[in-house]
């Protein structure tokens, strides 16, 4: 499968703690994007990181990309109950289909 | 609210039937994508249209077809439905066709095939 894989599959933390989710993929990418999905709802784009970038920030989000290890991580700092959702990485590969491949997702629960 | 609308929100039908899902992209977006999300397969890309033309094809079954109309809305037709077609179907749109574009997702249509 060309899909990325998120790790862990599920994560439960207390409000105020940091949450880290990881994404691994198999072939060279053009970019990697993170999306969020509230239960049964549509996905919301969070951040895009290009293959020549190593780190990117957006508010309480920090994304890193290590192309040598074919992995990315999403860090959410000072988590809030409203951050409870599923988080997906999506990759655009350098060759082949010009569409995004979504990973399996990490289900984050932030306990108030 | 992403600006992408999908109808209907829920659809319950029987095996062997045919249904049509409708999507209206954000104002100004020319590209439309269809995805299927199920528990066992995850989020799978089905097909993409750009300005009325098919742009990319993913794991779309032959029983499924789609089109994008001159007013840029899109329809996904699912025929000879099977139990395994039960899933959430999402439409997304972007201004241009490149996969580097941020995709804006609609709320989805939940299809249940009984």
Count of alpha and pi helical runs of chain A = 0
Biggest interface in this structure?
A-B, 23 and 27 residues
**Quaternary state, please?**
heterodimer
Share of helical residues of chain A: under 10%
Q: What's the total count of β strands of chain A?
A: 11
Low-pLDDT regions of chain A: none
Mean pLDDT of chain B: 93
Strand count of chain B: 11
**Cα distance spanning the termini of chain A:** 37 Å
> Biggest β-sheet of chain A, characterized?
6 strands, mixed
Q: What percentage of residues of chain B falls in helices of 4 or more residues?
A: under 10%
Sheet with most strands of chain B: 7 strands, mixed
- Determine Rg of chain A (CA atoms, Å): 13 Å
Secondary-structure element pattern of chain A, one letter each: EEEEEEEEEEE
Our Rg estimate of chain B from Cα atoms comes to 13 Å
Give the end-to-end Cα distance of chain B, rounded to a whole number of Å: 31 Å
List the helices and strands and how they pair.
The complex is a heterodimer of chains A (112) and B (114).
Chain A: E1 5-7, E2 10-14, E3 19-24, E4 29-37, E5 43-50, E6 55-58, E7 61-66, E8 71-76, E9 85-93, E10 101-102, E11 106-111
Parallel strand pairs in A: 2-11
Antiparallel strand pairs in A: 1-3, 3-8, 4-5, 4-9, 6-7, 7-8, 9-10, 9-11
Chain B: E1 5-7, E2 10-13, E3 19-24, E4 31-38, E5 42-50, E6 53-57, E7 64-68, E8 74-78, E9 87-94, E10 104-105, E11 109-113
Parallel strand pairs in B: 2-11
Antiparallel strand pairs in B: 1-3, 3-8, 4-5, 4-9, 5-6, 7-8, 9-10, 9-11
Structure notes:
The complex is a heterodimer of chains A (112) and B (114). Chain A has strands at 5-7, 10-14, 19-24, 29-37, 43-50, 55-58, 61-66, 71-76, 85-93, 101-102, 106-111. With 112 residues, chain A is mainly beta. In chain A, the strands form two sheets. In chain A, strands 2, 4, 5, 9, 10 and 11 form a six-stranded mixed β-sheet that branches. In chain A, strands 1-3-8-7-6 form a five-stranded antiparallel β-sheet, with no helix packed on it. The model of chain A has no long low-confidence stretch (mean pLDDT 90). With 114 residues, chain B is mainly beta. Chain B has strands spanning 5-7, 10-13, 19-24, 31-38, 42-50, 53-57, 64-68, 74-78, 87-94, 104-105, 109-113. In chain B, strand 5 (42-50) and strand 6 form a beta hairpin. The relative contact order of chain B is 0.33. The A-B interface holds A 3, 30-31, 33, 35, 40-45, 48, 88, 92, 97-105 and B 2, 4, 33, 35, 42-45, 48, 55-56, 58, 88, 90, 92, 97-100, 102-108, 110.
